[in-house]
Amino acid sequence: MSEAALKVLKEVFGHAGFRGAQADIVQHVASGGDALVLMPTGGGKSLCYQVPALLRSGTAVVVSPLIALMQDQVAAMTQLGVRAAFLNSTLDLDQVREVERSLLDGTLDLLYVAPERLNTPRCLDLLSHIRPALFAIDEAHCVAQWGHDFRPEYLQLSVLHERFPDVPRIALTATADPATRDEIIDRLALHDARVFVSSFDRPNIRYTIVDKDDARKQLLRFIRTEHPEDAGIVYCLSRKKVDETAEWLVAQGLKALPYHAGMDAATRAAHQARFQREEGLIVVATIAFGMGIDKPDVRFVAHLDLPRSIEGYYQETGRAGRDGGAADAWMAYGLADVVQQRRFIDQSEGSEAFRRISGSKLDALLGLCETAQCRRVHLLAYFGEEGVPCGNCDNCLNPPETWDASVASQKALSAIYRTGQRFGAGHLIDVLRGKDGERIRQWAHDQLSVYGIGKAEDEHHWRSVFRQLVALGLARVDHESYGALVLTEAARPVLRGERTVMMRRIPERVREAARRARS
Ligand code: ADP
Ligand code: ZN
């Protein structure tokens, strides 16, 4: 059987050999077993069901929520000579009938179906007239109710097991935290499935997270020193910032193009094609850029804004170094990013539970940003994997010192408290440093006991303290008032002097670079 699988891999897909767990997975599913595949994005999940689809008789049914990608997938399969089609809401009735006819005629190898379509009596009835080769459930984490991609239609996919107990099922996802894994197994009734967990480690990526000062200049310095001629992706949160940053990089003499959903489709496609084809091009993009890019030699991925979660960060940085060569994941992060992301969460339409989960995902990401530990170890631990310090991330290469920040924390927390928990870090720092100004006088903050008690330290120092207070959960950014810092319950023992707070010291080298970037 593995002979046959290899033959299909070579002759149909044109690949020389399987990668990682692919061979085992293909073997297992082709011989009729159920499987749950946890593999990072870009790991090669598709072949895990496409090859068995061709090895088993009948049509393989692939459930996918990504309707927008189905047409591309079918086109790509057709080009390889695989007989593929899709059923989703973009087809008119005649087209649906045609696909249904080929299915009944047994002339399809692969059928992609949207979950809401599959759950209809019409579709289930249709499937009962054929003998499906297998069911592949892509993006299986969509079944996890508290996940950020939850799709109610996915819950009904357990019907597949009831209606077609003898047809093997393979569920695939790039979300590997243990809670999601268990939920997938439960809700899809995959208790007998073999679980294939691929490592999420990307050893050739060097992770660096810097303290944001003047992000654009920091970025330029990073590109000029580390990747002067290389292809890379720069992620920004807003379309406006994408346009501005791309323009600015071009003005600095770099080859850069913007990409975001607000641009017309033709321009977008043209920019993507140029990125794919040309060497040394930088694309400045929102997260709309990513799906379907398959450029192996992206040498760096830079974030000028904070992603929403560790999953997002991992997925976006994962686009670097697919060829296995050394690559950089570089991010600049500051408290303003946290404030902004919080605001998105608080203003989102989602349920209370959704907001709570989004909040804790953001906190997990802040933990990664502020850790003094190996970034890779921290990242892998989040995905339920153990690792040893990598020797290749910023923290391993330049271990951050930690310092006893208990007194500084007391000062900063007192400043929050004394000013009525209504101000952002910028104003609080002015108070601590005893700055004079209209705003200070207007609120009579120069009359407070905390006024000027942080004079000995510079603004940079205090910014880092406030950021870490948030990351440590001692203060949080408030919902309603615009980015005001408020105390949490955990701040009490610190204020009473009952708890020590250790923080990472921003290395002098980094401060120096920040000062230079500013000037
Ligand atoms: P995922 O769905 O896990 O994100 P894909 O299935 O899209 O990943 O595969 C990512 C890329 O890796 C694709 O371009 C695919 O052609 C390539 N790929 C996957 N498996 C192999 C292999 N065994 N040999 C060569 N290329 C592969
Ligand atoms: Zn490390």
TrEMBL record:
Q: Quote the protein name from its UniProt record.
A: DNA helicase RecQ
InterPro entries (alphabetical): DEAD/DEAH_box_helicase_dom, DNA_helicase_ATP-dep_RecQ, DNA_helicase_ATP-dep_RecQ_bac, Helicase_ATP-bd, Helicase_C-like, HRDC-like_sf, HRDC_dom, HRDC_dom_sf
Instruction: Give the Gene Ontology MF terms in alphabetical order.
Output: 3'-5' DNA helicase activity; ATP binding; DNA binding; four-way junction helicase activity; hydrolase activity; metal ion binding
* Keyword entries, A-Z: ATP-binding, DNA damage, DNA recombination, DNA repair, DNA-binding, Helicase, Hydrolase, Isomerase, Metal-binding, Nucleotide-binding, Zinc
Domain named Helicase ATP-binding is located at: 26-194
What's the cofactor? Zn(2+); Mg(2+)
Please give the family membership noted in the entry: Belongs to the helicase family. RecQ subfamily.
Domain Helicase C-terminal, residue spans: 215-365
Recorded catalytic activity of this chain's protein? Couples ATP hydrolysis with the unwinding of duplex DNA by translocating in the 3'-5' direction
Instruction: Say if the entry is tagged with keyword Nucleotide-binding.
Output: yes
- Keyword Repeat carried by entry: no
EC number(s) on record? 5.6.2.4
Q: Which GO terms describe its biological process?
A: DNA recombination; DNA repair; DNA replication; SOS response
Q: Name one GO cellular component term.
A: cytoplasm
